Amino acid sequence: MNGYEFTIAGASLVALGSGALWWPDQDLLVVSDLHLGKSERIARRGGTSLPPYDTRDTLNRLAADLALCHARTVVCLGDSFDDLAASEALPETERQWIFRLQAGRRWVWIEGNHDPGPVEFGGAHLAELPLQPLTFRHIAQEGAAGEISGHYHPKASLTLRGRTITRAAFLIDSDRVILPAYGTYTGGLRTQSPALSALMRAEAIAVLTGPTPTAVPMPR
What we know:
alpha/beta
């Protein structure tokens, strides 16, 4: 499996090149910030029109990760839809695709700041999910330990042979993991930002996503 293996709070996890997090012992796949329906939301609010393929692309990558891992449980760490109206406006083909991905699995929607209320899809809808020794929530909390969260869309840069590569990244230290955004049209917050620097310990690493997940000291 193409991923970076590490341990937090005694749990052995794998940061996949796609931006998903795999917990083999629990057959559990975690994704964050899908922002499904983002192109529809931007168009609805009078923004720049984007090709309306982001939801299909995101779901296609999620389907590939599920086929790879054979996950029995899926945890979506919030902001799964770009807003509640976007969830309601999904085309029927994409709604049915989500239902097929959910079939036969435990599916947990963690509430995010973009989708704070229930959505018209199956699965559990929770503010956070404690699953010892870890806790899954949308936004990291100061002082937490064994925490898996999203929200910040972290991205990091690596310079190789005079060429700078910037990619979405996992942030990992002994207390927490902050996942990158999984959605196709999501932007990113550089790891040098004060918010991320304040949350992550000095020894934190960034794992850049892509064909070969690469771990580097978290740029500050």
